[in-house]
Amino acid sequence: MAEPDKPQRSKAETEVAMTRIAPLGPMQRMAAQHLADSHRETAPVTLFGDVDASSLLALRRNLNQDRPEGSANRVSITHLLIKVVAQALRAHPALNVGFIDGQLHEWQDFNIGVALAMPKGELIVPVIRHADGKSLDAIIADLSALETRARAGKLALADVKGGTFTLSNAGMVKSARWTTPIIHRPQCAILGAGAIREAAVIKDGRVEPGIVLPLSLTFDHRLVNGLPASLFLDSVYDLIADASRIALDPLPAR
After folding, report:
1. Angle formed by the axes of helices 77-91 and 54-63, to 10°?
2. Considering the chain, what is the average pLDDT of its residues?
3. Cβ atoms 197, 210 nearer than 8 A
4. Tell me, what CATH number does 191's domain have?
């Protein structure tokens, strides 16, 4: 038996209503191309896990006791994570490498890029240079200056070049848990942080209420295998779980 003829739909019914075409701005076009190239040209692997963040939050609370809400020198989780990443990279320099023109580059500087989302949707990654050799207060001042220039559209090329590792903190979004951040080529790896949340944790064989920070490390398997990456992430975990070990002053010169 022949099927009945399907009703013909007009062109207007089959087209999606569109109010306007919004061309990407120069920064968005550049970021889009860079992200697509990275996703295509790396061999990304991501490690996931939760770490007890109660010690990290206690440290931030103590440091902010004399820093009023809204003050320029207020300590954030991002500031502390920059210090953690720089300290862990010093212990595991295998993650502080890049792939340029088919060759492995082992960088001697520890320059931490910090992914920032701008109000109009642009994604930029300004760089905290020599993060291992800076105090926490110097990092706060550097990041504040970079954010101010970024929002004013006055970032210089030097502000976004030369990163050796990237941190992406999505913790301000409550629904963000684990992410699979895209590696910022030619770097080897990027650490993603999600929203801190309450969760059941096991301590000394007992289930107790706790506060955990979800972390994800994406690394380029062409440059480093899972063992060095896991050891680096272990160091990050250890510093966060016992925040008294975070070096708030500059690390000694090597």
Report:
1. 120
2. 89
3. no
4. 3.30.559.10
* Residue 4: inside a domain: no
β-pairing, 206-220 vs 189-193, is: antiparallel
Q: How far apart, in whole angstroms, are the C-alpha atoms of residue 194 and residue 134?
A: 25
The residues that bridge with 169 in the sheet, in sequence order, are 193
Q: Is residue 8 part of a domain?
A: no
Is residue 146 in a domain? yes
pLDDT at 29 over 90: no
pLDDT of the residue at 177: 77
Q: How far apart are the first and last CA of the chain?
A: 84
Q: Identify any residues that bridge with 38 across adjacent strands, giving them in sequence order.
A: none
Domain residues for 174?
47-245
Number of domains in the chain: 1
* Tens of pLDDT, residues 229-248: 999 999 999 999 999 999 99
Domain for residue 35, yes or no? no
